[in-house]
Prior knowledge:
The structure holds two protein chains of two kinds. In chain A, 60% of the residues lie in helices and 8% in strands. Chain A has 26 helices and twelve strands. Chain A is elongated, with a radius of gyration of 28 Å. Residues 1-16 and 559-565 of chain A have low confidence and may be disordered. By secondary structure, chain B is α+β, with helices and mostly antiparallel strands. Chain B has a single domain (16-104), classed as Roll (SH3 type barrels), CATH 2.30.30. In chain B, 17% of the residues lie in helices and 30% in strands. Chain B has a six-stranded antiparallel sheet. Residues 1-10 of chain B have low confidence and may be disordered. Classes of the chains: A alpha/beta, B alpha+beta. Strand 12 (452-454) of chain A pairs antiparallel with strand 5 (88-92) of chain B, so a sheet runs across the interface.
Amino acid sequence: xxxxxxxxxxxxxxxxxxxxxxxxxxxxxSGKTALFNALTGSRQKVANYAGVTVERKEGVLTTASGRxxxxxxxxxxxxxxxxxxxxxxTRDAVLGKLAGEVAPEALICVADATNLxxxxxxxLELKQVGRPFVLALNMFDIAQRQGLRIDLERLxxxxxxxxxxxxxxxxxxxxxLLEKVEAIVAAKNLEKGKxxxxxxxxxxxxxxxxxxxxxxxxxxxxxxxxxxRPDTVTGKIDGVLxxxxxxxVILLTLLFxxxxxxxxxxxxxxxxxxxxxxxLVAFTNDHLPHGLLTSFIxxxxxxxxxxxxxxxxxxxxxxFFILMLEDxxxxxxxxxxxxxxxxxxxxxxxxxxxxxxxxxxxIPGIMSTRVIDNREDRLTTILVAPLMTCSARIPxxxxxxxxxxxxxxVGGFLSLQGLVMFGLxxxxxxxxxxVSFVIRRIFWRGAVEPFMMELPTYRWPxxxxxxxxxxxxxxxxxxxxxxxxxxxxxxxxxxxTFPYPPEGATGPAIDYSIAGRVGKFIAPLMxxxxxxxxxxxxxxxxxxxxxxxxxxxxxxxAVGGGDGETGALSTLLKNQWSLxxxxxxxxxxxxxxxxxxxxxxxxxxxxxxxxxxxxxxYMVSLAYLAAFIVxxxxxxxxxx
Amino acid sequence: xxxxxxxSPEFNPAEIEPGGLRPLASARRGDRGVIVRVTGVxxxxxxxxxxxxxxxxxxxxxxxxxxxxxxxxxxxGRDPIAxxxxxxxxxxxxxxxxxxxxxxxxx
Lengths: 640, 107
């Protein structure tokens, strides 16, 4: 291995003299991303590494001497011995072997000054790589407050690298850090032509890790005096938040508040965006000559962009909560509390965050499965994520419940409509757990991936840092989702528009389109589950986004163009559909893969057509089965 | 479902080992001690090789000689557990904790 690396090093293109490349490495929770944000400010670019779905965050900074540097924020790790795709990227980037990347000239190893024990072993590994690095002792203010004394000079000698103390969130120590980085880059450039430090790193064996630990321990004891006022707050908070019973109650309360926020705070914004785009569509239709191009711009493009943007408020609020929970250190506790419940269904504790996100939209949920190391664990999570009730189902649920479920109270205070809504959510969750249970017990019977997670010290989230991360998340969502959703919206527009109705046609235009024909063609297939052809036709444009089905039902029943007329539509449906058909439609919507963008994202994230196909097939089968059972049970009870 | 919450049937760490050692898997909240041995064999079927599990444990700080204290237990089957290893708080399942032998204080 060392030989391979040496060759790769020699073959790597020589960097331009003026823009040095540096990379940030460090343990998770060391404040690495905060340091990255502080160093580069808004000059960041987020993309993927070539060929893998690992996020690549790069920024540019200018040092005091006017020199430009490119900074790469590598995924956090405890070791260069990579286990997950994320950690492979870190290892290969550090070794300078990452495809499509120029080897960094220097590294900044970011360490939490109050938690040095584990990072020192990583530092020893970095030393073997031979690439020059600076150790940034971050969160140094907290270390000082605790009365932790670190012999910086001795530590620097021991690890053979310069050390700078930093407080990333207050931007303290950054000029000194950059000065040191510039110095080692300059020294490296001077030495060019001479023999560079050789890379002697290779994957350590267990006994080598033990030896490195002993060495790290020796350095630690020699250089760090234990804190005079150790942190006791985290222990006290954990006493409550990790209490076996109270901890779960608090977690559930937190989730409840989060959902309330996602749905209630976002509503005015979403209504605003909706109204804005509806106005824009109307404006376009009014001011451009009627015809194909106008229809394409208004109903295809503008409506398509709108259907993506409308979810942005919910996703921002959701990410805001998730980032708060992550930055404060609570997310690891949530995974701890949920591990047994998730594990019972064969899911990894880390599947918690992706499944949580899927309540807003399965797309960010599926994207965030990247934190799961094990491939089977990750695929299982991806496959069940769309069963979580996403917000796009809500308009459909609201319409049908409003039309068919009477507004009465049960047991004195519970609304029947609310209960049905709750039941739909619950069936989504239960079926997700059941499906993953089946996958892990029958198809992938392998043992569960080990669950080991550091529980970091609690910290107040830093507002500036939080906002920057939120902005990054939002940008990633918009870019990725937009690239997938928009073309699909255009496709669905084509299917629902062509061919045109013949002259003198009486029915709505969609009847004559490809979507309408396909709908009528498969209608006999759907008859056993109680769907009439109008319902079936609505399902096809509904593939673009679930809530579109509502608008299409409006169109096929020719109710005022289908916009904002849900009151009239709901009365009409009540007269046209039997209760059994309505319930069957709801059951279908709990399971059906009524969302092409989700399938598109699954294709992207798994780099294969197999998984979206598997997802589509199993979800359609479940949906058909559930709708069949519900319909026939309802008919048997005389609700047909 | 309740069966799923229990530890897997093949999971059977030795209760008491010679020399008064016990696997971390059997520890209760508040137990303290010193890690005496870390292996990759937890007593349960693992998805990773023994050497790999051993290395992961070592990398998280589970190393011979480290002080350990059980801080918290989960609600269902007291699993997973949160422990303090020297200065680091780590959460892990009792399955994997079967690979860590501890000499507990006062027992």
